[in-house]
Structure formats: structure tokens, C-alpha cells
Amino acid sequence: MIQMQTNPVVLLIAQSDLMTKIVLLILLFLSIFSWALFLYKLVIGAIKRRQMARILHALKVAHTIDEIASVASIHAHTLPGVLMTKNLSVLKSLLESRQTYSVLSDRELELLENNLEQTIDEAIATEESFLPFFAATAAVSPLLGLFGTVWGLIHSFVRIAEKQQADIPTIAPGIAEALITTLAGLMVAIPALMMFHYLNTRVRSLEYLLLRLADKFSWSINTLFIK
After folding, report:
1. Helix, strand or coil for residue 205?
2. Residue-wise pLDDT tens digits, 141-192
3. Residues in contact with 16: Cβ distance below 8 Å, sequence separation at least 6, in sequence order
4. Fewer CB atoms < 10 Å away: N or C end of the chain?
């Protein structure tokens, strides 16, 4: 009859004490949540960048305020569409007391620019949400692993004292059990650190696209309402 060999790492975890198992469970949760959040951010970020590309392309042929408003309406449920809609609402409030489109004053242009910057800042702040989680995970995981290692070493020394011998068969299992948490901590921390830097780069890329959209919007408004 063929016997299945159990993985030594699984055996070490199974034989570890309660505190070590708690540390490993915390690290497992951090790892699963990090990967799930990373994949979610990747998908959402890719969708938003495609939306930005589409609306920037559409604005190339929008030469009047009605055409710009039409583009914003078509993409109303996208990030760039929301940005344009909010700022068009501000523009509309500035012009609604006038019978025809006319020249905007410097104060009104400054108000419009400030609102545009605020909208972009809010969008970037939303995109940067949960990024601190990756940084915290990368920083905390090795410390949790080290805590588990120290705890395991103490547990191992107590075991040696109880058996009153320090031969290899007595020491090796305890040392291996202690080091497993350090390994787990590094396996969580290293990917989390890479995820943080990658997602931060993608946020900066999206910020660049938003600034391009803002420049295009401002240029159109200046062309239409500054004589």
C-alpha cells in the first residue's frame, strides 16, 4: 500500500504551538487580502485608463461647449466623465445669469481652475486609498515573523530544558519551527512592497492622464470664453 508523504513544512506548522499558529494565520490573512486588493486595483485601474484614453480621443473633435458637454454626458459614469461634468456644472453656474456665452473674468477663470484642481485631487486621493495598507503590510509582516521566531526559540529552549539535553534531534525541530514564521513574514512582505510601488506608479500614470484632461478642458474653455 502506497503511503503519501506529508510536506515537512505542513508537519512543522501542525506541530507548532498556538502562538505560532496565530502569527501564521495573521500573515495568511494579510497575504490573501493583499493579493485580492492588488488584483482589484489592477482591474479597476486598467478600466479607468481605457476610459481616459477614450474621452481624450473624443475631445480632439469637440470644438464647442455643447460638443464638450455631449462628450461628458456620454461618459458620465466614468472617472473622466464625472470630472468634466462637475466642472461643466461650475461653468454653467457662472454663465446661467447671462443671455449668451461671453467672456469670463479672471476671477471666474480662477474659480474654475481651482475647482478643476480640487476635483483631480479628490480623484487621486480615492485612487491612493488602500495603498498605505500595502506599505503597512510590508513593514509589519517581517516584524510578525520575527516575533514568531523569537517565541519559537523560547519555546524550543524550554523544551531543551525539560529534556535536559541539547542534541540535534532535540534542537532541530524547534529551530525549524521558529524560523518558519520568519519565512512566512518575508513571503508576505516582499510581494506587498512590490505591489505598493507598482500601484503607486499606476496612480501617478492615471494622475498624468487626469492632468492632460484638465489641460484639454481648460484650453477649450479659454478658447471659447476668452477674447
Report:
1. helix
2. 999 999 988 888 887 777 777 777 666 666 666 777 778 889 999 999 999 9
3. 24, 152, 177, 180
4. N
What is d(CA 146, CA 20) in angstroms, rounded to the nearest whole number?
11
Q: Measure the CA–CA gap between 163 and 194, rounded to whole angstroms.
A: 44
Indicate the pTM of the whole model: 0.81
- Which residues, in sequence order, are CB contacts of 38 under 8 Å at separation 6+? 134, 195, 199
| Mean pLDDT over each residue of the chain, to the nearest integer | 84
Residues of the chain with pLDDT under 50: 1-4
Q: Report the candidate in 49, 20, 55 with the shortest Cα–Cα distance to residue 144.
A: 20
**Distance between CA 123 and CA 135 in Å, rounded?**
21
